[in-house]
Amino acid sequence: MVHQLSLVSSIPHSKYLQTISSLQAITGISTPTEISTYSLITQPNLIFKPKFEPGKINQIEQYFMKCTTTWIDDEGRNLDISKPILNDSKDIIVQKLFSSDNTTNTNDNERVWTLQISDIPIAGKNQQCSQQTIFESTLVHTHIGVDSEIKNKEEVVKQETNDNKSDVMEIDEDEINKQYQNLNSTEAKIRQDSFLIYLSDLGYEVINQYWIKGKKFFIMDDIIIEIYKIFVRDDSYTGDEIKLKLLDESNTFQIKSYINIKNSTDIEQINNGIKKLINLQNLIKSLFLLEVPDRMFMDSRIKSNI
Questions:
Q1: What is the value of pTM for the model shown?
Q2: Which of 19, 126, 131, 186 has its CA 20 to 30 A from that of 301?
Q3: pLDDT at 77
């Protein structure tokens, strides 16, 4: 768990080289760290819908979970974001992570995933920066693609199970288990090694995905500044692979400046962190304006009306 203090901004593409050069001069870092990540947004399979009653307070909260790993294919390594990405420029084609291609290449399929759930930032009219508690867990997963045939078999079992639930009051659990055991041992192994199956077993389903490419600077020991563009899947593309497009087609760069505090009750460290962010805000105000993000846009709680 970390308590994150943050400020955000954005710049047009035309100011990117100037911004990078200025940050290199301020930080003394000639080669900033590359950011190249792939993220899944997931939600619980079963959404809790409380029955609202007078005088009863709902204390149960559910959250979207973000799962992030490194974007390591050729596009992730070689994409140059210093050049504007236009509609008539070369297509950005990425590999499908969850496929059965190259399943024997363990090095390509072994991924470090960061699973993250974040609370809504602290409220208050006089907040000088966003303050948000973030819970993270990291795991190493060796992914093996799931064949469409196996997916279809699993869908059939799920559908039959749902049909049974609608027809009778009690479910024969032994019969359902037998249906799953009909998959041969190889298929079972593939199912167990799929990250999507892991998420399903954890009780989550994928609802969205995005890719980030950018650069990261470290300043004043513990302040991190990230400058990046966000890419999403282009659903109009009909090929076997995935074509990406910019989330913001104006080529705008997003900027996030933040400090991670280990303990949300360490008031002294939080106050020092806020002062450092304010000092940074004043130092680079002629370059770009760092602002407090709208806390409601950072609310990852799942509403009961979904």
A1: 0.80
A2: 126
A3: 86
